Task: structure prediction
Amino acid sequence: MRLFHTGFEVIKNPDIRYGRKNADFGQGFYLTDDEEFSCRWAKERRGKTPVINTYEMEFDGLKVHYFKREAEWFSYIFNNRRGRKDTIDADVIIGPIANDTIYDTLGMITSGLLKDDEALALLQLGYEYRQFVLKTDRAANNLKWIESREILSEESERYRNALEREQEEYLRMIAEKIEGKD
Result:
């Protein structure tokens, strides 16, 4: 399977211990199978050009945990965001990103304005993109770097515009859902 990771470096051998522990699926190396979605994370910084790394992944012999946009997924993400101990024993976790990663809805959840079931309903709105998180060295050893390429300014702008349009649509859906609350 082809997987993609966007950042500022060519990463031939990813470190699963690098990165935030309180991300959606806890500490690990995050990838996606959607190249265009990965490019949407391309941010320009002074003196740095964004890079998309392309990999191939072999899953044979790995323990893989799959999530759907359901209560188990919501609970797992929410516990990771709170810095709680990881409860899934897997080499790779595959599942939807939480929309708040893009659209910052987590504030409404953590503020207590929404109950868990209401928060889950909001996080189920909008487009669904999958993330693959390598949690173990065994998984990282099954990832083969293929190539890297720079994401040029024009391309980056196109992806940012697509992300902005998607964000506006998502915010409209959230407003409609909240206005429909009893």
In short: The mean pLDDT is 85.
